[in-house]
Design a protein that fits this description.
This protein is α+β, with helices and mostly antiparallel strands and about 190 residues long. It has two domains: about 35-120, Hemagglutinin Ectodomain, Chain B (Alpha-Beta Complex); about 120-180, Head domain of nucleotide exchange factor GrpE (Nucleotide Exchange Factor Grpe, Chain A, domain 2), CATH 2.30.22.10. Helices cover about 55% and strands about 15% of the residues. The N and C termini lie far apart (about 95 Å).
Length: about 190
Amino acid sequence: MNENETNKKTEELQREEDVRVEDVPQSASEPHGRESIDAKGLVDRIQRLQAEFENYKKRTAREFSRQEERAIDRILLDVLPLYDALGLAFENYNRDDDAEAFVAGVERIFAQFEQILESKGVTRIESLGVAFDPAVHEALLSLPSEQDKNTILEEFSPGYVRNGRTLRPSKVGVSQGPAPAKEEEE
């Protein structure tokens, strides 16, 4: 089929569509023979499509809610053993009054917590002594120092990243840089 024939077919289809649009009565309740039936069919089809779309939106919202619940359940399944272990540690401490065993137990729980975070791809942001990066650090204060300007001097709260995305920025204190040298007066 050449370009000429394609253009003719397109024009014919447009004329047919124009006729169909012009033949639709102003009110679907007006009886005008076949055109009225076609209009009623179109209105019915539009109503069905609208209802199907509303059902789709509700179904999608329910599915999203279920997936969110499953994600929370997975997190809780990782955290519940830690909760149980802490409860057991406190129970044993209250019974035995052995501070060293309690501290050792809490250290093991902390190690388990770190393993969970690592398995989820969470890593701690290194901050001390590195250059300030606003994508992963939040400056709480600026301090005079002999260090280069914008070097992190102090970390108030650690930050974490997961898969290259900042979960929580490190809260840090940043160097203002060396003080300017004062010229000696004669």
